[in-house]
Amino acid sequence: MKVLIVGSGGREHAIATSVKKSPKVSKIYCAPGNAGIGQIAQCVPIGAMEFDALVKFAKETAIDFVIVGMDDPLVGGLVDAMEEAGIRTFGPRKNAAILEGSKAFSKDLMKKYNIPTAAYENFDDADAALKYLETASFPIVLKADGLALGKGVLICNTKEEAVEGVKSIMLDKQFGTAGNRMVIEEFMTGREVSVLSFVDGKTIKTMTSA
C-alpha cells in the first residue's frame, strides 16, 4: 500500500512513524514534509494547500491512501477533493472540519443542540466587542474565530487587558484573518481534557483521553 501524508509538522512526523510500522505499507510519501519526516518517508515539494497538485500527484503515483494531518487543508476541503478523485482519504470533510476552523460556528452548534459549553458571545465588529466588555466579568477569554496555530486564545484578567486583546485580534490582526471574527467567552477553571474519536458516520471509536 502506498500512503501519502499531507503536512509538515510534528503531527505528521508521528503519523509517518506509526504508518511505517504497518506491514501493509510499502511506500510513504509526505507533502511537503520536513527534514525529520524525510528520514522515514519520501518528501514531495508540494504545499499542503496545493489541492490540484496533490490530487494529480496521488493519481500519478497510484496512492492507495491519503492521511491529512494539517488543519488548514482539512478546513479548506482537501479530503473532499481527494474523494472526488476517487482516492481514499482519512480526515474530516470540509463541512465537518469547520468545527475546528470556526470557533464561533462550533459554539453556535453546541448552543443549538444543548451541548454544555461556556457562556459566550460572537463578534464581527471590534466596537461591539469593546462595548460588551463594559459590563463583562473578569477574567474573560478572547478567541480568534479561525485557525491560529493553537495561539489564538487570550485569557484576560482585567478590562484593560481585554480591551488590548480585542484590538490586537480584530484591529491589529495579530492572528491574521483568523481574527476577522472573535468569540468572547466565560472564563472557567478546572481540568482540561481532550477526547478524540474516529467516526465514519455510523460507528464511533474513542481514543484514550489526553
Biggest sheet: strand arrangement: 3-2-1-4-5
Low-confidence stretches: none
Assembly state (oligomeric): single chain
Number of separate strands: 11
Structural class: alpha/beta
**Envelope shape:** elongated
Salient structural properties:
2 domains, Rossmann fold, Dna Ligase, domain 1, four-stranded antiparallel sheet, single chain, elongated, 8 helices, 21% strand, 11 strands, alpha/beta, 210 residues
Characterization of this structure:
There is one protein chain. This protein has 210 residues and is an alpha/beta fold. It has two domains: 2-99, 3-Layer(aba) Sandwich (Rossmann fold); 102-186, Dna Ligase, domain 1 (2-Layer Sandwich), CATH 3.30.1490. The chain is built from eight helices and eleven strands. The protein has helices at residues 10-20, 51-60, 71-76, 78-84, 94-101, 103-112, 126-133, 159-171; strands at residues 2-7, 27-32, 42-43, 65-68, 89-90, 120-123, 140-144, 153-156, 182-186, 197-199, 204-206. The protein has a five-stranded parallel beta sheet with strand order 3-2-1-4-5, with helices on both faces. It has a four-stranded antiparallel beta sheet with strand order 6-9-7-8, with helices on both faces. Strands 10-11 form a two-stranded antiparallel sheet. Helix 7 (126-133) runs antiparallel to helix 8 (159-171). It is elongated. The relative contact order is 0.10.
